[in-house]
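Box S1 | Example of a co-folding query
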Amino acid sequence: MSEGFVELTVNGAPQALWAQESATLLQVLREILGLTGTKNGCETGHCGACTVWIDDVPRLACLTPVGSVAGSRITTVEGLGAWWEESHPSSHYHPVQTAFVEFGAVQCGFCTPGMLMAAAALLRDEPLPTEQEILERLAGHLCRCTGYEQIVRAIRQAALTEVKEL
Ligand code: FES
Ligand code: FES
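Box S1 (continued) | Returned holo structure for FE2/S2 (inorganic) cluster
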């Protein structure tokens, strides 16, 4: 199994990492970079807890060999606020982060990082999604606590906040 340096940009910072090329992006983020906000729920692509952005597209880090994303720009939940702040300097948090807290969309919090990354990507693609569109986008994200209702309400609120800010 080959190993070597993999260069990535993670949350805006260039990284050169020594890793097995077959190591997953999830392993590298959590075990080498200490970015444990990205959760390991199943490691088999079934829960959505490991969702990050690869070149701004939401992807499952547990199914992504790090060698396949060399040279890419990775954004994790730890970098979501800073990503938002680049275009909205008055706010340190993405509106979905604020709305999740406001609407009680976080209970144990295990699914939350993946939900936030999926929701923020949805609002970038579709600024005012319908409830159906939200549910479709969250279809691969499991939450054992909330019943999803507060999560959907939070995302709708975040959409309204974003639209007001445009
Ligand atoms: S940890 Fe990746 S989908 Fe569950
Ligand atoms: S808040 Fe506990 S799994 Fe979603």
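The longest helix spans residues 149-165. The mean pLDDT is 95.
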